[in-house]
Amino acid sequence: LLLLPLLAAAAPYGSFPGPLRSPQRRWPVPYRRFDYRPKADPYCQARYTFCPTGSAIPVMKKEDVIEVYRLQTPVWEFKYGDLLGHLKIMHDAVGFKSSLTGRNYTMEWYELFQLGNCTFPHLRPGMDAPFWCNQGAACFYEGIDDAHWKENGTLVHVTTISGTMFNEMAKWVKYDNETGIYYETWTVKASPNKQATVWFDSYECSKFILRTYQKLADLGAVFKRVQTNYTSIILFSGEPVYLGNETSIFGPLGNRTLAADVRDFYDPFKPYQTVREFFVGLVKIIDRVILNHEFYLFYNLEYWFLPMKFPYLKIVYEEIPLPVGNKTAFGV
Ligand SMILES: *[C@@H]1O[C@H](CO)[C@@H](O)[C@H](O)[C@H]1NC(C)=O
Ligand SMILES: *[C@@H]1O[C@H](CO)[C@@H](O)[C@H](O)[C@H]1NC(C)=O
Ligand SMILES: *[C@@H]1O[C@H](CO)[C@@H](O)[C@H](O)[C@H]1NC(C)=O
Ligand SMILES: *[C@@H]1O[C@H](CO)[C@@H](O)[C@H](O)[C@H]1NC(C)=O
Ligand SMILES: *[C@@H]1O[C@H](CO)[C@@H](O)[C@H](O)[C@H]1NC(C)=O
Ligand SMILES: *[C@@H]1O[C@H](CO)[C@@H](O)[C@H](O)[C@H]1NC(C)=O
Ligand SMILES: *[C@@H]1O[C@H](CO)[C@@H](O)[C@H](O)[C@H]1NC(C)=O
Ligand SMILES: *[C@@H]1O[C@H](CO)[C@@H](O)[C@H](O)[C@H]1NC(C)=O
């Protein structure tokens, strides 16, 4: 009997049929894409209008030469004891400047109803299931506010592309924006080691910028060598356990104990807050998570149980290098 887990581990691709082991999971769990973006529920009301000056992405002339900028600015910085140290929570965007028209543009991806609403649900009276206002989307607008990005952040030229490449990127942004709908705050890993298994990847502003750079590299963009660091909010846990979706947990056939546990878990965390209050709330989670070694994660509209382990939660500001491009196909 003792040998069984070892054998199963040696043959991980399902050569043991039947109930010997659970179906092989793919880690990290792939982020789910949808066919289209549903309208947000009217219960979700933004305190600050999403993308107030947004516009459609313009079609550029083929022969245009467009400079691409990395933009980054702190959302919130604070010091929290030795556990988290000095936290640098950065927001990322990308800038474009057309040399034919002299106009410039900013593109970013962020929460429709702010970070608190994307991270914690509302427990509404008369509703069993926690209620989420967790959409995020891309926002494109004319202008780059140099002072805003430069003051304590970054505004740096990273590559130059052609109008054709820009127009191809615009098509991809449309697809990406229609199919990648829900914001995911947390990265979940097995340990702080670089090689540790990643159970879940976050899906937030910086991931959109990384995808955009990768798309440009695939189109032939060659990036400069500059160090590019990004913020990640990481939870540490043993292998996650799949629990089910809203219907299977909170519906008529659901397990009442589990449903109550999930609601209880989210009870202390209020989503209404400002960014500052959010991080104060985040610090409260640590206490609760350390005490109980448990976390209920909502990812792809499904719930997972995370058996939490030391060091539980970390906020890191680490390098993810710019992509290494392949040979230019569209030219600049
Ligand atoms: C979070 O969602 C609630 C419910 O719609 C809303 O009242 C609140 O304004 C939202 N918070 C922010 C910061 O937008
Ligand atoms: C992305 O989708 C949102 C929500 O539908 C929309 O407001 C926004 O304009 C779209 N962004 C782009 C760049 O098309
Ligand atoms: C973007 O355009 C504005 C307005 O013309 C200008 O003030 C700013 O310096 C430009 N920024 C960049 C990075 O091109
Ligand atoms: C930039 O940093 C300075 C000094 O720490 C601070 O006073 C200022 O408010 C910061 N500006 C922004 C936009 O965060
Ligand atoms: C660059 O590589 C990517 C991925 O390997 C590929 O999809 C793309 O077609 C390539 N682009 C060019 C311009 O060679
Ligand atoms: C929820 O899970 C059940 C059982 O696994 C499945 O039949 C159902 O289609 C799922 N519902 C949604 C909305 O994904
Ligand atoms: C119901 O959920 C609880 C808490 O997660 C669990 O301990 C129990 O085994 C579950 N019961 C059934 C019948 O699945
Ligand atoms: C950027 O990331 C690198 C490697 O991940 C790290 O060594 C460096 O200290 C980071 N820079 C800042 C300013 O935190």
TrEMBL record:
PANTHER family: CEROID-LIPOFUSCINOSIS NEURONAL PROTEIN 5 (PTHR15380:SF2), CEROID-LIPOFUSCINOSIS, NEURONAL 5 (PTHR15380). Pfam families: CLN5 (PF15014). This is Bis(monoacylglycero)phosphate synthase CLN5. One of its GO terms (molecular function) is hydrolase activity, acting on glycosyl bonds. It comes from the Eukaryota. It catalyses: 2 1-hexadecanoyl-sn-glycero-3-phospho-(1'-sn-glycerol) = 1-hexadecanoyl-sn-glycero-3-phospho-(3'-hexadecanoyl-1'-sn-glycerol) + sn-glycero-3-phospho-(1'-sn-glycerol); 2 1-tetradecanoyl-sn-glycero-3-phospho-(1'-sn-glycerol) = 1-tetradecanoyl-sn-glycero-3-phospho-(3'-tetradecanoyl-1'-sn-glycerol) + sn-glycero-3-phospho-(1'-sn-glycerol); 2 1-acyl-sn-glycero-3-phospho-(1'-sn-glycerol) = 1-acyl-sn-glycero-3-phospho-(3'-acyl-sn-1'-glycerol) + sn-glycero-3-phospho-(1'-sn-glycerol); 2 1-(9Z-octadecenoyl)-sn-glycero-3-phospho-(1'-sn-glycerol) = 1-(9Z-octadecenoyl)-sn-glycero-3-phospho-(3'-(9Z-octadecenoyl)-1'-sn-glycerol) + sn-glycero-3-phospho-(1'-sn-glycerol). Belongs to the CLN5 family. GO terms for biological process: lysosome organization. Residues 1-17 form the signal peptide. GO terms for cellular component: lysosomal membrane. InterPro entries: CLN5. It comes from Rhinopomastus cyanomelas (Common scimitarbill). The gene is Cln5. Keywords: Glycoprotein, Signal. Catalyzes the synthesis of bis(monoacylglycero)phosphate (BMP) via transacylation of 2 molecules of lysophosphatidylglycerol (LPG). BMP also known as lysobisphosphatidic acid plays a key role in the formation of intraluminal vesicles and in maintaining intracellular cholesterol homeostasis. Can use only LPG as the exclusive lysophospholipid acyl donor for base exchange and displays BMP synthase activity towards various LPGs (LPG 14:0, LPG 16:0, LPG 18:0, LPG 18:1) with a higher preference for longer chain lengths. Exhibits palmitoyl protein thioesterase (S-depalmitoylation) activity in vitro and most likely plays a role in protein S-depalmitoylation.
